[in-house]
Amino acid sequence: MTRKRLVAAACAAACALGAAAFALFPPRVPPEAIRTAVTRSEPLLERAWHLPAAARLRHDLVWQSNASLCGPASVANALRSLGEQVDTEAAVLAGTGRCWTGYCVLGLTLDQLAEVARTRTKRTVTLLRDLGAEEFRAHMRRANDPGRRYIVNFNRAAIFGAGAGHHAPIGGYLEGEDLVFVLDVNRAFGPWLVERARLYAAMNTLDGDRTRGLLLIE
């Protein structure tokens, strides 16, 4: 191997390791931002927990076991809320060949998560990206349909000021307040409410060369 190729290979390896470290150990969000960057009003949260999708979970979420498993944990919660017997990250990933070490190195993209979800359910799994703001609003309104579940892929930094890409189930939409109920599978954050426009802006960001978006399971 020539010196030039060795240097290129070393650079590629360093970039891969850096990306993996970023996925497994994303920038830490300060506790103050976790508390104040989103809506955590107890009366509003209690109302949100009574929305159809969230109510099926009865305040009992499957939490991600490490920073790279937000996608599988989100699928587990979405399918559980639809009455399916898939209630752990391991059950979601079984037989997919992904994350077999217990870590999804670099995390899972939205496309990869859609593939994983399709192996676990006979329901239709649709990937939605490049949505306009009004299209996103229409989907949030339909998030309260009992037979539909959404998982959103968004850039946490756009809402909390730090962090990286994240997957989370949508628990429903308080249309009167224009707030989306995000069932954050990271125990440090827990469920929260956020203005629809802010969540849309955080979703409408790039993951590599592709836009983030939604998974719809119905």
Structural description of this entry:
Keywords: Cadmium, Metal-binding, Signal, Transferase. There is one protein chain. With 218 residues, this protein is of the alpha+beta class. The protein has a single domain, classed as Phytochelatin synthase, N-terminal domain (Cathepsin B, Chain A). Helices cover 41% and strands 18% of the residues. Strands 1-8-2-3-4-5 form a 6-stranded antiparallel sheet, sandwiched between helices. The N and C termini lie far apart (51 Å). About 8% of the residues have low confidence.
Summed up:
This protein has 218 residues and is an alpha+beta fold. The chain is built from 10 helices and 8 strands. The chain has one domain (3-217): Alpha-Beta Complex (Cathepsin B, Chain A).
Mean pLDDT: 90
Backbone shape = globular
* CATH-defined fold name: Cathepsin B, Chain A
Largest sheet: 6 strands, antiparallel
Give the terminus-to-terminus CA distance. Answer: 51 Å
Count of DSSP strands: 8
Number of helices: 10
CATH class, named Alpha Beta
Domains (count)? 1
Order of helices and strands: HHHHHHHEHEHEEEHEEE
Helical amount: 40-55%
Q: Structural class of the helices, strands and pairings? A: alpha+beta
Overall radius of gyration: 18 Å
Main-sheet strand order equals 1-8-2-3-4-5
The CATH architecture comes to Alpha-Beta Complex
The fourth-level CATH homologous superfamily is Phytochelatin synthase, N-terminal domain
Q: Which stretches are low in confidence, meaning pLDDT under 50 for 5 or more residues running? A: 6-23
- Percent strand: 15-25%
